[in-house]
Amino acid sequence: MTRLGFLLARTLRQEGPLASLSVAQDALMKDLSGRQVALVGNARSLAEGEKGAQIDAADVVIRINRAPMPDPQSHGTRTDWLALAVRAGRGDLRRLAPGRVLWMSHKRKRLTWAAASSPGFYLHPLSDWAALRDELGAPPTTGLMMIRLLASSDLASLELFGFDFFASLSLTGSRTQAQVPHDFTAERAWVETLMARDPRIRMAGT
């Protein structure tokens, strides 16, 4: 697809042409099979610790949205996959240099050509987003969508870094819980229930 074709499909909300740019979800699952995965959230509290080496030791390091990395000691250095629900230009992609970009948001109008045309691009199905929204009773965060997606794979382990469900706010802005559309109490309960039944998944600390 050309850039003009992409812009037209995005403007007209033509899901089929946009989805044609994506690798299949089965291919994504295959790439995760047997791997040790670190999913790095953007809680401010992560910057207070020294989890960087632990993050970089994973087979696959996945970061979220603008993925601030203030210090290698706290955040590590690698970004293998980047999960997005915000607009990312070539500058962001150059800084993080992800091997794969995943567009998790239902808001296709925010998707950029730079992300959609990148190697290994993945477009998360609208039906999966809607199912999780209905389960929570609120729009899910990018982090929770990734946890759900990763848990459905045959990965060996999943460690969650920088997830305190907005208790310390986010490194990417100054908004409070009241200013964002997510239900962090529901998300915390969802993750705790998942971890209780799936021993592969654990909270590595914030």
UniProtKB/TrEMBL annotation:
Its membrane topology: Single-pass membrane protein
Localization, UniProt: Endomembrane system; Membrane
UniProt keyword Ribosomal protein, yes or no: no
InterPro entries: Glyco_trans_29 (IPR001675), GT29-like_sf (IPR038578)
Record key words, sorted: Glycoprotein, Glycosyltransferase, Membrane, Transferase, Transmembrane, Transmembrane helix
Pfam families: Glyco_transf_29 (PF00777)
Record flagged with keyword Magnesium: no
Protein name, per record: Glycosyltransferase family 29 protein
